[in-house]
Write a structure and sequence with these properties.
There is one protein chain. The protein is mainly alpha-helical and 249 residues long. It has a domain of 140 residues: Serine Threonine Protein Phosphatase 5, Tetratricopeptide repeat, CATH 1.25.40. 74% of the residues lie in helices and 0% in strands. Helix 12 packs parallel to helix 14 and helix 13 packs antiparallel against helix 14. It is globular, with a radius of gyration of 19 Å. The N terminus is likely disordered.
Length: 249
């Protein structure tokens, strides 16, 4: 009988949880076109630190302008500066307690800053304001999963799926939550549904590969890992999956 490497599975869940923060809802902006173009180029290159630096200068002049604050906070979050992002957001949330985009960005940063209990409070308030916001329900599931509240997490994911059926982001997070509770066959079936969706990201297939390896199917895991990753990384991951799938003596 195999012993599944739970620490690896826990790491997988923590990384996959990040997917629940997309897509961002940002307001239209009256920012100078030249700066907007520079920011767009930085974001297209995934140089979020450069984008944050562009927005920082604007924020210093316009600390209450939502068209500046929201993308600035997002850029900080994407480079891992969630605590700094929370400092930017908190004053505006205090004076705009029902602004859904602000609350959602706040919650994503609370999750990123390892404050899932605070994120749960924020997200419960948010879904109270907008019960049709599937992204908020999915993020609420992520926060519950971080707290080990897997039943509550899965209930939140099901709320999200009722609004956005077969959404691959939600299915991905639901599957990983199911895996955390030991329901590996159900988790694999859920991730297979997600992977069939044309909108599914590479991370969904890589998560499925990991779960297949945990089940002992290293061949299927290797086939998936080769679809999206560069050859050297694919070979390294395939070797790890073969090790995971190998029965213990």
């Amino acid at each position: 009988m195999r012993t599944r490497p739970l620490p690896l599975l826990t790491l997988l869940l923590a990384l996959a949880a990040c997917e629940a923060v997309d897509p961002d809802r940002l307001p239209s902006s009256a920012i100078d076109p030249t700066l907007r173009e520079a920011v767009a180029e930085a974001e297209q290159a995934q140089d979020y630190m450069a984008a944050a630096n562009y927005y920082r200068s604007l924020f210093e002049r316009n600390p209450t302008d939502l068209a500046v604050v929201l993308p600035y906070a997002r850029s900080l979050r994407l480079v891992g500066l969630c605590e700094e992002s929370l400092e930017v957001l908190t004053p505006l949330v205090e004076v705009n307690p029902k602004h859904t985009a602000l609350l959602f960005e706040m919650a994503k940063n609370q999750i990123g800053a390892a404050k899932p209990a605070e994120a749960v409070v924020t997200l419960k308030g948010l879904v109270g304001l907008d019960k049709r916001m599937w992204e908020a329900w999915s993020a609420l599931g992520v926060a519950h999963d971080y707290l080990g509240q897997n039943a509550e997490a899965q209930e939140s994911y099901l709320h999200a799926l009722a609004i956005a059926p077969e959404n691959p982001v939600v299915l991905n997070n639901l599957a990983l939550s199911q895996a955390r509770t030991g329901a590996l066959p159900i988790a694999i079936a859920t991730l297979e549904r997600a992977a069939k969706n044309p909108r599914a990201r590479a991370q969904v297939r890589q998560n499925l590969a990991m779960l297949l390896a945990l089940r002992g199917d290293s061949g299927a895991a290797e086939r998936l890992v080769r679809q999206d990753l560069p050859t050297d990384i694919a070979l390294r991951n395939a070797a790890i999956y073969r090790l995971i799938a190998k029965p213990n003596p």
